Amino acid sequence: MSQTAITVEGLGKRYRLGKSQKKPANFWQALGGALVAPFRYLIRSATQASEQETLWALRDVSFSVQAGEALGVVGRNGAGKTTLLKILSRITDPSQGRARLHGRVGSLLEVGTGFHAELTGRENIFLNGAILGMRHAEIKSRFDEIVDFAEVERFIDTPVKYYSSGMYVRLAFSVAAHLNPEILLVDEVLAVGDLAFQKKCLGKMGNVATAGRTILLVSHNMEAILGLCSRAIWIDDGRLVADGPSAEVVEAYTKASLDLAASVSLDERAQEGPGVIKFTGFHLRDGNGRELEFAFCGQEVELVLEYETRDGQELSNVMAWVWFRDRLGKPLAIAFTRLTGQNFERLPGRGRMVCRLPRLTLAPGSYLLDLEAQAPGQRTDKIIGAVVLEVSPGDFFGSGKPVSDVGVFLVDHSWRLEA
Question: What pLDDT shows up at residue 50?
Fold first, then answer.
C-alpha cells in the first residue's frame, strides 16, 4: 500500500474585509472623540463592525495525495488555488480544518519564493537547501546541475535583486526541482519564462514525477496538466468541485469555462492589475463593420475591445494584445500592438481598441481569447478566457468547398506539377 504524502481535511481560509475609515491622528484624539461624543463613537463602531465582510478564499476542501502521485489543480483566477498552496507551504495558516504533509516540501509559488534579494544566486542556493534541511555537502553535490539548468552561471555571484524576471524564475525553479524535496508545490510561475524554458521545466517535472516524488501543479495550461498529472482537482469559488482522472476533470472544467465566457459580461469579471484601464465589452465585426455572432474561416474580421480608463484620464504609449487559445488553454497565436509597431501613443479615457484580421486562419471550432493591456511600467487589465470565439466552416481557399476537420490553422497554399 502506498503512503499518503498529503492529507487535507475540511480546509478553509477566511479573510475579513471592511470599509476603510479615517484613523485618529493619535491616542489623545481618539480618546477625546470617544469622551466628547460617546454615542456617535458607539454608532460608528457598530457601523464599522456591520460593514465588515467575510470572504472565504477556501471552504471545506478535503482530498489526499499518495506519495509519488502528480496532482493537477485547475480553476479560474481567484478560485482559491494559490491560497491552497500557500497553506500547504505553511506561508499562511488555515482558518479551519487541517493539512498534513509527510516529507520535505519544496515550493515555487511566485518568482523567487524564498530568495533573499541582497544575497547572490550562489548564496540563495545554499540558503534554500538549508531551509529544506539538506546538508552542505548534499547541496554542493547538486550545485553545478542547478546552475547549468538555470543558465545563470555568468551571474551566479551577483545579488539576485539585479536579476531579470526570467533569470529569477529560472534559478528559483531549478533550486526547487533539484534539491530533492519529497513534495514539490508549483504554482503558475512558468508563464514568466520563455517558451523554450517552459518546455524544459515541464520535462524536468516529468522526470521528478517518474522519480517517485509528489507534485502539486497549479496551471492554466491544460495540456501540461494532462501530460504530467494522472489525477486533477477543480476548485471554484473556494470549494472543491471535482476530483478524478485528469482527462475527466479537465473536460468538465474547460466546458464550464467556455460556458462562463459566453454568458458573463467583461464588466462582471474579476480584474487583474491596478485598474488604470478596464475592458468593459467585446464584440466581433466583419470587414464592413457589421456585428457578428461567429466568424467563418477565411473571413475578414475585427476584434473590438471596449475599454475605459480610471477617472477618464488619457494615457500614453499603451500596449494591448489578444491571446488565442484552444479549449485546453494552450496558446496558439497572439495579436500584439508591439509586434506591428502600433502601440497607442495617446489613449482617450474611453473608446474601442480594434484589431483587424484580414483573413481568419483558424480552423472551425471554439477558441478562448485572453485580453490584456499595459501602460508604461504597469499591467492595467488582464482577463484569461474572456471571450469565446466561434469559427464556422468557410470557403477559405475559394474552391467552393467549406473546410472542416483540418487541424488548428489553415495554411494558404496552392499546388502545381513540374515536369
Answer: 46
Using a CB cutoff of 8 Å and minimum separation of 24, what contacts does 201-208 make? 201/173, 201/177, 202/227, 202/228, 204/149, 204/173, 204/177, 205/70, 205/177, 208/177, 208/184
Q: Which three cell numbers, joined as nine digits, stand for 16?
A: 475579513
How many CB atoms are located within 10 Å of the residue 109 CB? 20
Instruction: Please indicate, yes or no, if residue 47 is contained in any of the structural domains.
Output: no
If asked whether residues 244 and 278 sit together in one domain, one would say: no
Selected residue with higher pLDDT from 293 and 131: 293
Q: Is 400 helix (H, G, I), strand (E, B) or coil?
A: coil
> Is 237 in the same domain as 93?
yes
Residue 63 has pLDDT above 70, yes or no: yes
Identify whether 148 is part of a domain.
yes
Does the pLDDT value for residue 28 go beyond 70? no
What pLDDT is attached to residue 148?
92
Domain boundary among 238, 260, 282: 260
190, 291: one domain: no
